[in-house]
């Protein structure tokens, strides 16, 4: 059965960066979702005008509660309103969960390589959280690219990820003092090559279109098979 529109009430908003927000909604009879899926959000103005945008789910299924990541886009029609103006307690319409390809489930035993650019961390964070909640022993490596330290989403949570998930944060414009890697665009040396003796990891890549195309080419050059690379892009 195709997902239908349902009411969802905003119950919490938390800042992640100067323009990035976590929005938590309560929606009755939520059917559950898999890490990596997304939803459509529909807003309706007083005059009947409607706008629909897609947003990634940032956490594993948790009853009727869902968590979205919203990056406010300058000049955007929907994201600035959702990020900062939608009142807590207000309702929107949500359709989902959507997507079945860009998905990781704890039952999978493939090693996982996650590569995120900016707010592209959101669906990958759902995978990291699901991995931790399941106490999975599957190797999981997150490579997270941001312009500068102020743009890191989920900073405290990633810093406390523990040994089960290897987290590498790369800075493209400004690195923090003491960083072992100077600021610069992600390159081949920043990505692990697949283990020649085993099954290549399942790669999940999410971020702006230019970033995804660049990193996708790097992964191929590093020897990752195309059929093991799953991408999601925006912008």
Automatic annotation (TrEMBL):
Record SUPFAM superfamilies: Ferredoxin reductase-like, C-terminal NADP-linked domain, Riboflavin synthase domain-like
Tell me the InterPro entries matching this sequence. Cbr1-like_FAD-bd_dom, FAD-bd_FR_type, FNR_nucleotide-bd, MRET, OxRdtase_FAD/NAD-bd, Riboflavin_synthase-like_b-brl
Which cofactors is this protein said to need? FAD
Keyword Metal-binding annotated: yes
Presence of keyword Iron: yes
Give any Pfam family that matches: FAD_binding_6
Q: Where is the FAD-binding FR-type domain?
A: 3-104
Query: What is this protein called in UniProt?
Result: Ferredoxin reductase
Recall the taxonomic lineage recorded for the source organism: Bacteria, Bacillati, Actinomycetota, Actinomycetes, Kitasatosporales
